[in-house]
Design goal:
Layout (H helix, E strand, L loop, with lengths): L14 H7 L4 H17 L10 E5 L5 H8 L3 E6 L2 H14 L5 E5 L7 H4 L2 E7 L11 H7 L1 E12 L1 H10 L25 H10 L3 E8 L16 H11 L11 E7 L1 H6 L7
Parallel strand pairs: 1-2, 1-4, 2-3, 4-5
Antiparallel strand pairs: 5-7, 6-7
Helix pairs in contact: 2-9, 3-4
Length: 272
């Protein structure tokens, strides 16, 4: 989401709402379960068998940073929001890993790759749809990646926005350009999966895994049967998050890339 001044969205005013609406319930549990499953599939070392260097860009409330630090990994956290960073630090303190995480409260563009060094895993979840220039994000993430690194990206899915409004009968909303409420957690700029694929292919990133996050949960209007059992919902989401066509209806999409070809083909800063 972009502010009226054309800047990247700062979540200082939405920290509490984000915490309660997303990670305070089943939505956040589903998101973390699918992301973690995907990362384990492509990078088994995150289970803690071998320490790796992790950069969490737009780390928000710090769930991923804290979890990875608890497993013994060397984690660098970044977020534009001072409120988000403070909340993440409190979570890290409660888990006993605050001093195991390097904290950087700034715009992601201000992270110095030369100073920080390169990372084995670069995480950037639910950030790109809030940026003034989303097409520049992947290029910057590559700057921080070591050869053979993994980039984990989630983004708000345009297909899901359309489908949800169709289900709810909000046909008029689909006849004009979408505009989210400024105080809402719904981004102004939902993204088509094909657009992200196009950007990544131009940068020679290799897509190794894709999943949908919340492929049915957010569409449920009547809670019944298995919907009353949170674990059953998570289990079903984990299954259908990987199956076409259902995964492309996920409220968010998770793309996992490898950087081998991207780094091999970027011999200078020409692309940046």
């Amino acid at each position: 989401m972009v502010s009226s001044s054309g800047e990247d969205r700062n979540f200082d005013d939405l920290t509490e709402k984000f915490s309660s609406k997303v990670y305070g319930g089943l939505k956040g549990d589903i998101r973390l379960a699918v992301i973690w499953r995907d990362l384990l599939a492509v990078m088994p070392s995150i289970s803690g068998s071998k320490p790796i260097r992790v950069l969490d860009v737009g780390g928000g409330l710090g769930q991923m940073s804290v979890r990875l630090a608890e497993l013994g990994h060397c984690v660098t956290y970044n977020d534009l929001s001072s409120n988000m960073t403070a909340t993440a630090k409190r979570a890290a303190t409660a888990a006993g890993v605050e001093h195991s995480i390097a904290w950087h409260q700034c715009a992601y563009q201000d992270l110095d790759a030369a100073e920080l060094g390169l990372f084995d895993l670069v995480i950037c979840h639910a950030v790109i749809e809030w940026l003034d220039k989303p097409e520049e994000l992947l290029r910057q993430l590559i700057r921080h990646s070591s050869y053979g690194a993994i980039i984990s990206l989630t983004f708000y899915n345009h297909n899901a926005l359309v489908y949800r409004n169709l289900i709810r009968g909000n046909f008029k909303m689909l006849e004009s350009d979408f505009k989210a409420d400024p105080g809402s957690l719904t981004p102004h700029s939902p993204l088509h999966p094909e657009l992200i694929k196009n950007w990544s292919e131009k940068l020679e990133l290799k897509l190794v895994k894709s999943s949908g996050l919340r492929v049915f949960h957010d569409y449920v209007t009547t809670v019944r049967g298995g919907h009353t059992n949170p674990q059953a919902v998570i289990d079903a989401e984990l299954v259908y998050s990987q199956i076409e066509p259902f995964k492309w209806l996920g409220r968010y999409i998770h793309f996992v890339f490898t950087t081998n070809d991207a780094l091999q083909n970027i011999a200078s800063d020409e692309l940046f």
